[in-house]
C-alpha cells in the first residue's frame, strides 16, 4: 500500500512540446502529492505539489492533474525546453508538513531535444 | 524559503575508514530529518528517519550500526558511514522538515569508497 507507480521510465520530447508523466498510488491515507525535479549530482528540488481537495494546479508551465477516484496524478510540462531535461519523481505522503516519510516513484528521465 | 546545506558534496575514502556527512537547516528548525540513499538511475531509498533528540528509526534492511545517525540539535543532523566498503559508494541525500516548512532537500553527497 506504500507504492507509488510512475510511468514512463524515460521520455523524449521535442522542444515546445508537452511532456506528460503519470503516477498512481494505492494508499488512500496519502494527502500530499509533490513532484520533484532532479539534475545529475544534485538533490531533488520541489517543482509543484497538490492536495486531494483540488483536481488541478498550475504554476507557470507546470500543471498537476489529480484524479482522486482513480488514485492517479500526472505532471504536464507545457512548451518543454532543453533546460527541462532532468529526472522527475512523483511522491506521496500523509501530509505536506514533513511529519511523515515521502514515498517516491521510480522516476522519469526526460530529454527535451531541440 | 527553507534552505538545507549538506556537506561534503563529494568525498572519497579508503575502505575501512569512516565518513561523516552533515546536514544543516539554515533558516528553520528541523524537527525531523530523513536520510536517503540513491543508486545511479534509481529512485531515492529512505534509510532512516530521525526526530531531534531521539534515536533514529531505520528502514528494514539498513544496518543501524553501519549508518550512524545523530540529530542532537534542531539545525544539524549527521550520517556517519562506519567501516565503509566499496558497496557503500552511493549518493546520500538528507531532507529536513520542521515548523510547517515541508520537505527541504540537501544537495546530496557523492561517496566513493576505494
Helix-strand blueprint:
The complex is a heterodimer of chains A (114) and B (114).
Chain A: E1 4-7, E2 10-14, E3 19-25, E4 33-38, E5 45-50, E6 56-59, E7 62-67, E8 72-77, E9 86-92, E10 103-104, E11 108-113
Parallel strand pairs in A: 2-11
Antiparallel strand pairs in A: 1-3, 3-8, 4-5, 4-9, 6-7, 7-8, 9-10, 9-11
Chain B: E1 4-7, E2 10-13, E3 19-25, E4 32-38, E5 44-51, E6 57-58, E7 67-70, E8 76-81, E9 90-97, E10 104-105, E11 109-113
Parallel strand pairs in B: 2-11
Antiparallel strand pairs in B: 1-3, 3-8, 4-5, 4-9, 5-6, 7-8, 9-10, 9-11
Question: Top keywords for this entry?
Answer:
heterodimer; A: 114 residues; mainly beta; six-stranded mixed sheet; five-stranded antiparallel sheet; globular; B: 114 residues; seven-stranded mixed sheet; four-stranded antiparallel sheet; 11 strands; 50% strand
Quick recap of the structure?
The complex is a heterodimer of chains A (about 110) and B (about 110). Chain A contains no helices and eleven strands. Chain A is mostly beta strands and about 110 residues long.
